[in-house]
Design a protein that fits this description.
The protein has 207 residues and is mainly α. It contains ten helices and three strands. Helix 4 crosses helix 6.
Length: 207
């Protein structure tokens, strides 16, 4: 049995969901007073919730402008994808070096399970979460604790990434591309994942 969420967690969860669904657009202001009235909590609680979202890079705190939803501009996209490549491509290199071209079923199971749930997803918000789990599963195949930990810290930012790439995909094409990727990282190694990330970067920055 999970403990009930705290007021800070509840507010953070609600606002996070609105950001990740696109209901709150990039650069939209997050106002403490309005949120406190809406959720029936103190401004101190709201401030702590907003700080969590800033730590997750879903929001930014700007001098004289307050807290706003993070913008996902070209520089942000490129920087995130470079970090993902540093972690994910290296993780696949380690996994392939360790496991060869045919990874054991036990290693593949989390990624396959994520693909099955992605195929069954009824909405994009769920698909965003499962897509992140798929990429976490690829990284976990490396067995490298520090890389796994660093990749997990991307968390919400990875969900935000898929929100912005969403217009370029249907759920069906997203599943198909990632099924192909799971085969390719075993057969071709880290370059298959590098190309996957570069492709999605090009979609978002228009190159």
């Amino acid at each position: 049995m999970h403990p009930a969420p705290t007021a800070v967690e509840r507010v953070a969860d609600e606002v996070r969901a609105e950001i990740l669904s696109g209901e709150l657009a990039a650069d939209a202001p997050l106002r403490e007073e309005a949120a406190a009235a809406r959720y029936g909590v103190s401004r101190h609680t709201v401030r702590a919730a907003f700080q969590r979202l800033v730590a997750e890079r879903l929001a930014v705190a700007l001098p004289y402008r307050g807290v706003r939803v993070a913008s996902f501009d070209r520089d942000t996209i490129v920087a995130l994808q470079q970090l993902r490549a540093a972690l994910e491509v290296e993780a696949v290199r380690i996994a392939r070096e360790r496991l060869g071209q045919e990874w054991p079923d036990a290693v593949l199971a989390p990624a396959r399970d994520a693909l099955d749930r992605l195929a069954a997803s009824a909405d994009w918000l769920e698909a965003e979460r499962v897509h992140a789990e798929f990429h976490h599963a690829l990284v976990a195949a490396s067995g490298s604790p520090r890389i796994i930990e660093a990749h997990a810290a991307l968390g919400s930012e990875l969900l935000l990434f898929l929100l912005h790439v969403r217009p370029h995909y249907t759920l069906e094409s997203l599943v198909a591309e990632h099924r192909e990727l799971l085969d390719a990282v075993q057969a071709e190694g880290p370059e298959a994942l590098r190309e996957h990330l570069e492709h999605s970067t090009r979609l978002l920055v228009g190159e």
